[in-house]
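User: Could you walk me through two proteins back to back? I'd like the raw sequence and the structure tokens for each, with a short line separating them so I can tell where one ends and the next begins.

Assistant: Of course. Protein one, sequence then structure:
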Amino acid sequence: MSDYVVKIALVASIIFMGYSISEFAASFKTVSEKIGEFLSLAKENSATDSDLRRTNIFLSCLLSVGYVVLVYFSNIVIWIVALVILKLVLTLFVSDKVLIQVLRDGSLSKKGYLVSKYDALFNAMMGFAFAVILVM
């Protein structure tokens, strides 16, 4: 069982790292266009701010819990699991704050963009580090 979990965790870490790198590499213009599309879809579907925040938190928590479970059952020391949990909670917090700012202002600020960009960089580093730990 553990061998399968380690392999799945390795694949998940690589996917997490790749997604985070793509988020880090996205330009302000690209992110702003995505936000414009997101806001128009939300308006079109009559989604409230609380619905959007609830969905964001639920999906982010679901993915984070899945990743943490894989990390935990990969027979990694508990303090690394705790660091992963701490980083994912910080990412959830950043994501929610940026979403609140976007919903309030209708656009992404440079500060929100930079915070999201560096959060993505640290997520990519965490995914890479965990993949290396699993391979060793």
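----
Protein two, same layout:
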Amino acid sequence: MLLHVSNEIGRLARLMLGDRRANFTVMVALSAPVALALAAVAIDEASIYTERREAQAMVDLAAITAASNITNVQTAVVTTLTDNGMPNVVVQGSGQTIAPAVGKTVVSVTPGRYAASTTDVTQRFQAGVTPYNAVRVTLKKIPARYFASSLIPTPVIGTQATASMTPQATFSVGSRLLSLNGGILNALLSGLIGGNISLSVMDYNSLVSADVSVLSFVDGLATQLNLTGVSYSDVLASKATIGQIATAMANVPGLGNTAKVALQTIASKATSTVKIPLSHLIDLGSVGSLGLGQKPAGLGVDANALGMLTTAAGLANGSKQIDLNVGVTIPGALSTTLAIAVGEPPQSSPWLAVDEVGTIVRTAQTRIKLVTKIGAGNTGIGGGITLLSVSLPLHLEVAYAEAKLTDISCPTGPDSIKVSIATRPGIVEGHLGDSSSAGFADFTKEETFSNTEIAGVSLLIIPLLSVVGSAAFEMANNTATTLTFNKAEIDAKTIKTAYTQNLTQSLTTSLVSNLSLTANLLGLPLNLNTLLGFVKPPVVALLNGVAAPVDSLLTDLLGTLGVRVGEADVRVTGATCGRSVLVQ
């Protein structure tokens, strides 16, 4: 009986083991929870991946928008994210830590400066460094979960984007002439570049009114220098003579015929073989990376023809000093001698620049020595005292007039563009006195001045006395004046001027009024106050009589050099808002 039962159980077991029809059902029943869990995780992971990509796209867009509105970055980011469906956007300030939560998006917005030229990619964006040209946006949020929230921890989506926008402007400083003196211009250019320049005021007026396309000018220089297949920066890294520069300017398309002929004449007369570094004349910034013949979109690069020519001539003057016979007659003057020393701007500061915020341009430093001998006509003063002659030894130094591009903004688009230039007029220092001629053209040293003979006096017809003296004054602005140009003014190439605020008198008159005189008898300085009381009034009267024409001569001369006494003239000839792009 027991055996029979055992056999029956064995038979049933064998039947069950041999019948596989129910195995699949059992396996499905056992694996269904696992499969459902995996499906839930897969669906949620796919959802998180999609949400992360959408978040990255929105952060990219927010960074681009913020870079285009660099003065209002937080509002730009929040508005962009909110308009694109990002819920409850909260901005995390510097030093704050805000945890994201369901239904709350946390962003941090960091303006800074992006330098594409930096080799280390991780160091290209410098947070907080001004002037700003880039924005980094970081976003954190909790993604939506549908099925697997109880199986795996809810992750935090973190995305980041950096966008940069590089607006550019073309600007120059100190290249304006209100009036022209043909004799001074001819003498100055002849002295600077050699040869014998003899052009009419009409010729110079045509150069004053003409603007030259700088890129076309560089194209012409490349042809003369036999440079092909290169960029504009490659050409500006070369050197050229003033003759080559004038020729290239004359060949720029669109130049008027009178200006063209004047430049051709200057080119043919120039004998100077000095080659100037073209980078001292022009800085094209990032535009320089373009190949020859290419033009930057939306940015015109023009420069005044006479301003460029006189600046190049100053750079081409190897000796840095010119002695001029300007052929100017000053009423009451017996003779006038004039010497000019032209300095050179720093290599990083050319006369014209095309670049972004932070770029600086400067005029060249200039020293002038003007000695005017005035006929006294043996003026009898009284008491046997006769005034024989009077001398006006005037020394003038004009340091750099500086213009710094501080801001380019486009608050509502290209038509709203504004360019701000922080401008410091040239520091002007004047002396009446004597200086060592050896250091006149050495701009690495300050000139020193001492008493010099101002007047010769005879006592009882014996020329025993000399009146010596000196005077000095300085006018300068230590604080820059901000000049702002809108689109209409940029299109019109409007000139704006920053003035030295403490200039209250004319140059020569202020020096004469500060003149301190002493008398020498037989070469010995003695206290001859009574004598000076008689002598000083007619001496000062004679000096004041020539002050106005001397001032006019100096103004014309400095204007020809592109420098205004106590003024800095700035032009913005082109500007573009640029285009905001992702950089990291």
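The chain has a mean pLDDT of 78.

Let me know if you want the two compared in more detail.
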